[in-house]
Amino acid sequence: MTANPIPRVEQQESEAESQLKPMHAETAEAEADVNGAAEAATDELIGIFYVENRRRKQNIKIVVKLCPEGIYLRRETAQNDHINEQLIRIDDIIGSSCGQRLKKRARGGLTSCKSTRNQQQEQHQHPDAEGAGAEEQQGKEADNSAYLYIYAYLKKEKPLRRGKTLRILRFRTSDDYAENLATARLWHRTIREHKQRSGAAGEVARATGKKLLILLNPKSGSGKGRELFQKQVAPVLREAEVQYDLQITTHPNYAQEFVRSRKDLMERYSGIVVASGDGLFYEVLNGLMGRMDWRRACRELPLGIIPCGSGNGLAKSIAHHCNEPYEPKPILHATLICVAGRATPMDVVRVELTHRDRHYVMYSFLSIGWGLIADIDIESESLRSIGAQRFTLWAIRRLITLRCYRGKLYYLPAKSSTEQPAAAPAAAPAAAPAAAQSTTGTPQEQANSQAEPQPADFSEFKDLPDDEDVQLRDNQSDLDQFADALSLDRSIYRQNADSWHSAVSRRTAYYSIGGQSSRSNRSRLNVSQRIEAANAEFNQLVPVSKIPGLQMPLSAADGWLHEEGEFVMVHAAYTTHLASDCYFAPESRLNDGLIYLVIIRAGVGRSQLLNFLLGMHNGTHLPMEPDPHIQVVPVRAFRIEPCGSHGILTIDGERVDYGPIQAEVFPGLINVMTTTGQ
Ligand SMILES: Nc1ncnc2c1ncn2[C@@H]1O[C@H](COP(=O)(O)OP(=O)(O)OP(=O)(O)O)[C@@H](O)[C@H]1O
């Protein structure tokens, strides 16, 4: 909200006076519109209303002007000696409703407003009709008034917060309720139109007849997701007149499957809101990326999050991004962000990992952790019942029994190496070796594991969209030929080889079983041409990796730096917050195309580490000067090759198989809901 009190100075009063005249003129026009049952809403509506000040036993005159910027409420005293004005910005108004008086007396600044003509009549007819008694007396008589309820959440900067304001306009120009209702409806419609013009996603969606899809995990956080939704989210959605479908998840992967397989997702929905923790958002992201039409889905469906989980890093990062409050009412504030629902591009990180000859590709939005923070996150699960304290307790424990992990770290700095700050002396990164790294399994085994269709993949074929017109044939000889071709010359297809591995994607199976596509018409080509054709076609269907596959060497010539040694942790973040109270990568932006790699090397002192952990809540943990042990590097991609088989790796806070892992950022791949838009 922007409140602009106009001080009591002569020249401003006269200026106000001059502004009032046209307002009166337009009031008449607005009423004339209604009386004439005009349907077209105007850009500007103006009415004069009165509020009873029961304490002072006087009426306060309020000129209410609805225009594209919002609603101006100009308040004047009877003597016209004091004027102040408030603007309720159109972006702060989430919705309105009109009709008869709500039974429960709603609390708001203007509790009851009367139009000018009736106010005068009223005073004439009931000279004493002031104060509560008179109002109640009137209430007992038939109330022909129509009421417009305007719901706004006004933003204050210091401290940053949003407070609910309800403004009620009472229309009773006519003795006929229908006429009064028509006036109220005109105001209601005009508010909607102004919101639509301001780009409010809900209004735009309404215009296209689409709904929000809300996925709720009843088990997230303290397990009260359903209750929180009914009490805190649903009322706001009602005020904003948001149409939605609520899907309550019944088991892990429910949301991922729902989003992946629902054919009319884009036709039916204008966006997807996750009412849960980061875990369910991860499912939704990977469900979208598992669709044949992922590109369109990512473009057309902005994603929102209402934090009902325990970590809630994304919800806090989004609030931080658009300068919206988070505490003390994270659910309310996040709901308001979703109601605004303006699409803002956000980076997604493609993660490739391998475990026991199997490759996986998944998509991440928050972080990848190896070492200290991942250990604290996962190992403290056993203390979940004590709440956020579990992290502190476990951090103390891990400081006492500090672990280091041996391994290799490769990264592709965002700036070229010549622009990089001086490398840390203790472990200066070296150029990546050109030599091939060891791979798991023989080439033939790898090829077989790549080509081997997973049982889940087969069942998923049923879900392929009809409109893709894909015909699949289970042709074993084609499968063998493909597997052979891949094992013979992987290097030719190096760039795209990883596309064949994605064990979790049905699209992999689609190609790897040698299925024919009526679109690609590959059947007339020889095997190697078909592989190339398949790769070309596949590239349209998945985001194309620009870095070598996980089993391929990384070259210094391509800008890769590497270091080998002992690490306390390597933690990569691409949003500002890892959890609502962990301001881990302050420099990060939703769409900066950067991964912030925080490296802590062995040899770091316990007190330095303690300061690091303590500083994470307000973002003061990273060294200002180059430090031999703690370093933050903005990168575009990185790879970790841990030695040994014991340790913890996390993606977006969830544990994954321990082994080599690499990540690459895809700038602005998805859209998230914010209040600011682009
Ligand atoms: N109905 C359900 N029953 C059990 N588990 C579920 C259900 N729906 C989703 N899940 C799983 O629960 C996991 C955790 O969910 P979520 O992230 O929403 O909550 P959280 O762990 O409390 O929050 P955070 O990730 O912020 O710590 C997800 O990985 C999801 O797959």
From TrEMBL:
Region of interest (Disordered), residue spans: 1-26, 107-140, 423-462
Gene: Dmoj\GI15718
Protein name: sphingosine kinase
GO molecular function per UniProt: ATP binding; sphingosine kinase activity
InterPro entries referenced in this protein's UniProt entry, alphabetically: ATP-NAD_kinase_N, Diacylglycerol_kinase_cat_dom, Lipid_Phosphate_FormReg, NAD/diacylglycerol_kinase_sf, YegS/DAGK_C
Subcellular location: Endomembrane system
Compositional bias (Low complexity): 423-436
A Gene Ontology biological process term: sphingosine biosynthetic process
Entry-linked SMART domains: DAGKc
Enzyme Commission code: 2.7.1.91
Keyword field: ATP-binding, Kinase, Membrane, Nucleotide-binding, Transferase
Biased composition (Polar residues): 112-122, 437-452
Record-level GO cellular component terms: cytosol; endomembrane system; plasma membrane
Alphabetical list of SUPFAM superfamilies matching this protein: NAD kinase/diacylglycerol kinase-like
Record Pfam families: DAGK_cat, YegS_C
DAGKc domain: residues covered: 207-355
